[in-house]
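Hi support team,

I'm opening this ticket because the web form for multi-chain structure prediction keeps timing out on my end. I have pasted the exact lines I submitted so you can reproduce it. The total is 999 residues across four entries, so I didn't expect it to be a heavy job. Is there a limit I'm missing, or should I split the entries? Thanks in advance, R.K.
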Amino acid sequence: MAKNVVIPVGPQHPALKEPANFSLTLQGEKILESTIRVGYNHRGIEKACEERTYVQDMYLIERICGICSHSHSTAFIQAVEEIAGLEMPGRGLYIRTLVAELERVHSHLLWLGVAGHEVGFDTLMMYTWRDREIVMDLLQVLTGNRVNYGINTIGGVRRDVTKEQLDDVMKGTQTLEERTKYYIELATQEPTLIQRLSGVGVLKPEDAVNLGAVGPVARASGVARDARKEDPYAVYADLEFNLITDNHNDVFGRAVVRLLELMESYKMIRQLVTKMPDGPIAAKAPRKIPAGEAISRYEAPRGEDVHYVKANGTEKPERVKVRAPTLANIQAVTKMLENGQLADMPIVVAAIDPCFSCTDRAIEIVSPDGPGILVWKDLREWSIEWYKERGLDLSGLNKKLISRLGR
Amino acid sequence: MVETLFYILVFPGFVFLSSLSFITEFVDRKLYARFQNRAGPPFIQPLADFLKLVGKEDVIPEDSSPAIFKFMPILALTAVLTAFAYIPLWTTHGLASFQGDIIVLLYLLTIPTLTFFLAGWYSTSLYAKIGAVRTITQLFAYEVPLFMAVLACAILADSWKTADIAAFYSAKPWLILVNLPAMFVALIALLGKLERVPFDIPEAETEIVAGTFTEYSGRLLALFRLGINIETIVAASLLAAVMIPFGLGLPWWFGVPLYLAKILFVIFCLALLRSVFARFRIDQMMRFCWTVLAPIAFFQIILNLIIKGFVLK
Amino acid sequence: MNKPGKIGGLALSSLLKKPATTKYPFVKEPMIGKFRGKIKFSQPLCIGCKICMRDCPSNAIEIVKVGEKQFEAVLDLGKCIYCGQCVDSCPKKALELTGEYELAVLDPKTLKVKI
Amino acid sequence: MREADQVRQELLAKFPWLDASSRVSRSRRLWVEVSDYSKFAEVLNFAVKNLDFDILCTITGLDDGPVLSAVYHIAAKDGIILNLKTSVPRDRPVLRSIVPVFTNAEIYERELIDLLGFKVEGLREGKRYPLPDGWPEGQYPLRKDWKPENLDAITPYGKPPKES
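Hello R.K., no limit was hit. The queue was backed up. Here is the completed structure from your submission:
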């Protein structure tokens, strides 16, 4: 085919779990050029934060992302605590870090499954997601929820952990470690998987620095950067762990980095459980935060979260700015896709572990009611009519169900 | 006459095949689920899916050519149903056997692939077009090893008639072992023909949505899916007749269960294969088919010629 | 070292194992630990300070005065995000978390409930 | 490992006039304000070239009443973050693009344009971020005087669907 084709991938596409748009210029199967449009998930969270109190913001920020919810809320709360000058109790910080590492385990296992799915290896996805249930259950035991844990509060954490819960964590970690070892073997031995991952989506080290890549993407290109090491927050200064890097520069390298990071996380979880000090879990926080500004860095599973908070002495922040890791990495995707194959596009995009909800924060738009646009109610009525024309009337069914179930 | 009509329309023709196709789809999905430690769908699921699709609206793209768009699913279904008439199931004879029918059979099995190509091409959607091109590219990769593998068995049996080949191997069962490499090649190539993982490149959902079938919906999609399901059975029956042809000509109360067991075995192999691999890329698939499958099939032909020339004389 | 179809062993052994799927709604997994579900309100304890209303991130809870030192709580299940901040904020422990999680309704009008 | 204070001293040696407007809030946090925008590029280049600040974390836009400010958060390998703040007048909020220095600044600058109404000179043509393509001109949501109700006046956006 001599003619170039421009193919839109997204905003709605099976490879993307969240909306983003990639316009790919193809020559046959080869990608010549790509442009990216993000912003479909912009929800106005930054503006909304300015209109809510710090306590309310905590939960709003947590809901920026469903996977790295603890990351965002911790990053935000760290900044607030810095402005307020709170003296943090050790046990609170340990619990916070424990949840953070469990979240990393859950996120990396999720990624492995998604990567498997993107290359058509659904069996891998099913197994990793089955094992992910273990860590989800652990998180639920510790915090009360499987996602959006709500464990953080300004000055510490909201829930204490018991001895039995920590034993459960140790036991779960043991199982997960064995499973992870199996996945490492699998990823390095299954030829069909290796073929699809290696040499794909190459990002050279100099490009990684230039384009500001963060997290596993940067580390897989040999850039040794990790906020946990560079700018130790919470209790990472007390923990012993290795900074994982890899020199493959491709998707395979990113998979290796994530899998080895899992092993480091298990190591850290053990240390956290054994070293956990006694004492209070939270410091008393004032409702009004004194004026000031702070920037907080947090190594989320996907890369570095940066939160900037400016306080003006009232109950509400003056400005909250969120930089999610995907926004830093998305600019590198164009580079990775260049001269690649169309078939590799999903895995390359998935390899940065994109989270567009994180990326696009900030305004609520009420549904447009302009001419020619149908809202939910119209669509429903239209579908009822459509079925009626064909002799199928289900409109009474809903009423019947309501009366039957009494709700 | 009535008997022939009954054979074509009811048993083991259209009605039987359609119901069997739902059962094999169920078995396939259930096995696939159990390989992944999932519960899998209930028994009625494939039928429910089919009926649901039939009840949906057919949406035909404005720019497409409606005649071709509507005709392709029917053609695919017709081709596989026709192919069925040439395979001896548990009898020693297919309905319309004649000398050379194995060639016709292989070509009839190629027709669905061509309809996928035309359907995708005339859908005028970008995803469908890319899917169509991939379908046809892939055809060149797996078709040759598949033909070579099946014909290698025919060469050894010294006949181009499926029924004769089956009869030949029934008489000399040990020769089935000779054909094991061909069986392996044919199974892998079948994955390509049926467009399953690792060869589901033309409809790789994470890349090109649903590939060829992106624009299909409702009844037409239901027909396509029925066609593919029946194609699975026909292909499995072909493998059963050529590669594992024992126990033919038994009374029906023993022959039918044996026949079903044979296709279920093939389905089991296909389900296992599709659950343990990642999807190939189109260039990797071409390389794999031409550098691994084709040489094995070629070696099988040479081996069979040698056996035929020296051992069976 | 390459091992094609390495996961095959695991797949085949799964055939004989019980599936990991939970057949909800036929089988209901109990909620372990202190799950954050629907909120319970004990009327006698409430002093009507309305701190819960002020702290609620989604304005889901409403305390209504129904008489002299008598208060009622109305919860909008559609708005509630089940964070449990109101329970933490309540100075008199009038609010409490329960493990109840099957809260879907067919009619949106019934989402607002008195608790 | 160098300390933020060392970096501050190095910076002051080059730009003594920054003494009053720079501070170290805690270890690894350096805040510098360059209120005169014409001197901003010089300070930024010095920080990048001579002080090894090589990663741009993000750019925060602030609505400070009469002026619009931008804080450039730049990190170095040793974990120090340099927060470089500068301001431009609200009625003529023009910044020069820093893409030649940091390639990844593009998307953050587009964010400033969309949400706070900055103008950025030297930014290449491209798709906007993060607001939708049909977003009305002159509506900058992160400015303090902006209310969601502003949109109601403009059709077809902002009219809520009628509740039944």
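A quick check on our side: The longest helix of chain A spans residues 90-118. Let us know if the file doesn't open in your viewer.
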